[in-house]
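Chapter summary example.
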Amino acid sequence: MALPTTTPSSWMRELDFPGQLLETGRDDYELYEQDGEFVLSVERPGFDVADIDVTWDDGMLNIAAEYEDDDRNQRRTYHRRFRFPKRVEGEEIDARYRNGVLEVRLPVTQGGTARGKETEIEG
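The structure predicted for these 123 residues follows.
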């Protein structure tokens, strides 16, 4: 199976909605679906695990990180939200942070389908 080589359209990029099965965005994350789960890898070097918050709320994954270095008078923040096209088992989400990469695994509900409805187009 060949992976898409074009960048997602601007409306998809703004929604942080996965395009086909693979999308890379803004050079800091990769998102794909594999073996019944979504896998999200976010590059966030220099943060401590305690500086990162991952929350799930009604189909939306929220990642926020904040780091303050008083010695250098620096503050680094990161915030990104991801919406998923299939139902996810919220209680089964697993997140790990190693070597500057946050990996979040989101198991898809068996038979989970995209939420929403089809909109008729007039012409």
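To summarize the output: The first helix runs from residue 10 to 15.
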